[in-house]
Amino acid sequence: MLIRTDPFRDFDRLAQQFFGSQTPGTWSRPTAMPMDAYREGDQYVVAFDLPGISPDAIELDVERNVLTVKAERRPVELSEGAEMQVSERPLGAFSRQLFLGDTLDADRIEASYEAGVLTLRIPIAEQAKPRKIAISNSEGDRKQIDA
Asked: Beta partners for 40?
């Protein structure tokens, strides 16, 4: 599994830390979301941190071998008479793209969202799993070997 890197996102993140957060809707590009990825048996597990984001504000798309995760954190709606004192949580669009190798089954991706963490389970394609191959010799005996 390949993960797309974008050095400009890192630069944007540093600029936001140095100059402070921008107002919603004025970001020049979507910011990245932190993630962990690991292999567990016959699948890859990818977990994205998306705290405070409603599940209906998350979008998953797969086109060819590119998985795109988009999410949006909207501003908190304050009741009448309330005044924001501190606003440090980033608002706006978040985006991440993963390049899925040919060994992964993009048609069977499972997604769940719990406690602010979006978890994707991407199974390894059947044709990529190890299998036994029968070998025959001139005496008609057949022997199994691992492929």
From this structure: 43
Q: Give per-residue pLDDT as tens, 26-55.
A: 444 555 689 999 999 999 999 999 988 989
pLDDT tens, 58-77? 999 999 889 999 999 888 88
Long-range interactions of 26-32: CB distance < 8 A, separation 24+: 27/92, 27/93, 30/70, 30/92, 30/93, 30/94, 30/95, 31/90, 31/92, 31/93, 31/94, 31/95, 32/6, 32/94, 32/95, 32/96
Work out whether strand 35-40 and strand 142-146 pair parallel, antiparallel, or are unpaired: unpaired
CA 95 to chain centre: 9
- Which domains are assigned to the chain? 2-12+30-75+90-146 (2.60.40.790)
Given its phi and psi angles, is residue 52 left (phi above 0), alpha (psi -120 to 50 degrees) or beta? left
Asked if 43 contacts 121 with a C-beta cutoff of 8 angstroms, the reply is yes
Q: Is-contact 101 2, C-beta < 8 A?
A: yes
* Cα torsion angle, 22, 27, 33, 34, sign: negative
